[in-house]
Amino acid sequence: MDLHSEMILDEYRSALPVFAKMQGEVMQRLHEALAKNGIIVTAIDSRIKTEESLAGKLALKGAKYATLSDITDILGARIITFYTDDVDRIAAMAEQLFEVDWTNSVDKRKLHELDSFGYNSLHYICRLPGYDYRFELQLRTTLQHAWAAINHDIGYKTGVEIPHEYLRRINRLAGILELADDEFSRIRTEITDYRRRVQQLVKNGKLDDVMLDGDTFRSYLEARPLDRLNKRIAAINQAEIQEVPLVRYLRVLKALECNTLGDVNRLIRQYEEAAYRLARHQLGNTDLDIISSAVGLQNICIVCILSQGGGKMGLLRLFNTLNGHNSQNEELAQMTYEQAKSLQL
Fold it and tell me: Which CA distances in Å does 7 have to 14, 48, 54, 317?
């Protein structure tokens, strides 16, 4: 190694504490910004180039660098995202956090020829205010990261040039990964749009236009359609209502032939009064002062099953669905059946 490169290495050794401080500040800013913007990533990491790695780089092209500050990847940070559009979101975020050296930054996603597939990523060269040294920020998706690792392993690990036949097959696979990346982002966008449409339909009361599924049921429950019944039931004993998830009732409602949110809404309205009478009978002789927010919906399902002739076996299926199969469900079904029978539900 020549004297010039040795001088850069000496500067590197002296500047290591500075790079360590930069690393901490960069990671803190990135973590805080990701959390603030609600962006979930696969991984976020950073590294400071080792002396051995830097020496190898200087041995190859040391004359290219006048000083250590000309080397932009001593500190490197990398964020791996789930979706391609999150790469652009984080890029915009990074532009607010750091000074971007646009001349030396590279968007490899824009460098491909029409017949070329492969590894894409966005490389920003950045500077923290108050520091002389720059650092590299790499942004890529999980599939792009996987491709980079696989391509490096296949293409470089053996040190043997890959025949054209195999390169063609590798490029075909890379093209599939790129299509998958784009499709995942497109699907997420369409699902988000679908949820917005559902929320608007629910807000406008057009429940018959909304098919019943996990997402739509959650949107419906946000309107708290069971509050009135639950408050009436709680008033029997002046009880407190403990909130619990109601999504597990989705399977039960589907079994009761509810296909839309309109069907669910009609079911609640049709059996609400009978469900209250059943609860009054269940709680009237107790001092229970805490009830579950599921009590109203559960009693609606009970009286619906009995009104349709499901009997004790129908109740047993209900409790098995809600609680999993266990010996107590049969006792619960028998007791509930007798309570309902005495009320002629």
Answer: 11, 19, 12, 79
Residues in the chain: 345
Unique residue bearing structure tokens 């949820």: 195
Please tell me the distance from the alpha carbon of residue 262 to that of residue 202, in angstroms, as a whole number.
10
Residue at 31: amino acid letter: H
Q: Answer yes or no: is pLDDT of 172 > 90.
A: no
CATH number of this structure's domain 3-154, picked from the four choices 3.90.226.10, 3.40.50.300, 3.40.710.10, 3.30.460.10: 3.30.460.10
Give pLDDT tens digits for 28-71.
999 999 999 999 999 999 999 999 999 999 888 878 899 999 99
Q: What's the pTM value of the predicted model, to 2 decimals?
A: 0.66
Distance separating alpha carbons of residues 73 and 137, to the nearest angstrom = 9
CA distance 44 to 23: 12
3-class DSSP state for residue 227?
helix
Whose structure tokens read 């696989």? 150
Query: In which residue ranges of the chain is CATH 3.30.460.10 found?
Result: 3-154
User: How far apart are the C-alpha atoms of 37 and 35, rounded to whole Å?
Assistant: 5
CA distance 96 to 32: 13
- 151 pLDDT higher than 60: yes
Q: Which residues, listed in sequence order, are joined to residue 106 by a DSSP beta bridge?
A: 123
List, as one string, the DSSP characters of 143-193.
Answer: HHHHHHHHHHHHHHSS-SPPPHHHHHHHHHHHHHHHHHHHHHHHHHHHHHH
User: What is the per-residue pLDDT for 163?
Assistant: 74
- From CA 117, how far away is CA 147, in angstroms rounded? 11
- Per DSSP bridges, beta strands 41-48 and 75-81 are antiparallel
Token pair in block for residue 290: 């805490």
- Which single residue is written with the structure tokens 């917005």? 196
DSSP state of 64: G
CA separation for the pair 174, 168 (Å, rounded): 10
How far apart (Å, rounded) are the C-alpha atoms in residues 292 and 294? 5
